[in-house]
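From the shared-data thread, chain only:
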Amino acid sequence: MSRRKFIASSSVLGAGMVASPMVFGRQRSMTGKPAVLGGQPMFAQKEWPRWPMWNPATDEKHVLEVLRSGVWSRAQVTQRFEEAWAKTIGTERCLTVVNGTNALITAMTNFGVGPGDEVILTPYTFIAVPLAVLAVGAMPVFADVELETFQIDPAQVAKKITPRTKAILPVHIAGVAVDMDRIMALAKQHNLIVIEDACQAHLAEYDGKRLGSIGHAGCFSFQNSKNLPIGEGGAVVSNNGEFMDRCYSYHNLGLPYGSMVGVVSASSVLAGTKIRLTEYQAAIGLALMERLEEETVRRDENARYLSSLLSEVPGIYPMKLYEKANKGAYHLYPFRYVAAEFGGLSRDRFLKALRAEGVPCSSGYAVLTDKPYLKDALDSPLYQQVYPKEQVDFDAYIAANRCPNNETLCNEQAVWFTQNLLLGPKSDMEMIATAIKRIHEHTGQLATGGNK
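Structure, as tokens:
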């Protein structure tokens, strides 16, 4: 798809949408009530770019060739996708698996992470991340985040390292980089494995390197909402050939592969599983990979522009980037909302007001550090037998893993836009910012219950 066609397809405007609030770069008046107070919505009947995007003319041939071939289980198309993804990320090897969760499990398992080990991770993440740690029998240890960046705080990571620590699992939340210099320095100092969770970070960069290529391994997700969506799917990338051979064997019933020598017909060489990708999934990935770079540039440019506009609004704090975060994938666009600077207007009421303007938004993640899934694992025979009594006491675990900044983000401040909102024209960013400014101008009325 040409750049012109891509821009046209991703910026269709609804028939009732009002005109841009910016004229030749100068902001128009924001007078008028917010929509929640009966005013005209900034986006009336807005058609935001749909996701996933599928262009039958260019995309379907990849899938139809596979379907007609009758070769649907893992074969040459999957291998082509892996080679292309490794080249794209800047690693020597890539292995596809059924989803990002199993990519994390595969990486941890084949670095020897298991029962008795501790893995340090962020509390501000999707539930799949701690579940993957639990799936290998390791203990998830949560290190708090920095409020300004939403990312795991390396200073808090340092405080959580013990003799049992085996790995650090930095999650590049929203597709924007963790401070990898400090994470890798800690890992080197304490001889720890670093597995990057880049499941939201397709083509994002830190210090000129693609995320997923900096640690000892990187993991990706290709689930339907992701920036490279194939329905379900995941990948492990690394420059460690022996590790990748083990991962391949593990994902294919433990059968011999590469340095994992043996005779296939005789026996498996390790206790593996069966989590192979299919050929038609790989075909979808190859089709959509062709425009991923262009889409990533657009998201990054629009996100940075939107941040420049929102930084002018009191009480709105766009996600802060580290100096070396060259490019963001922006699977999510998060910012902090401080109610005290909006006249005490609650986050829930702010979200309601913003949705009334036609802007889809949410409050993001919930706190994960005190939920029943953890008690279920800690009460299991494995954890009861392997870990010290004080470590598997649920109340003690909750106390040890409290993360105040994470609780502030989850319970009070975080607001999210999804990545498809960043695929439209610049004027969309201007109108989103204007909608938020208009809400701020009427916080007195909104905070006292004036919204319908």
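The chain has two domains: 3-53+291-364+410-450, 56-289.
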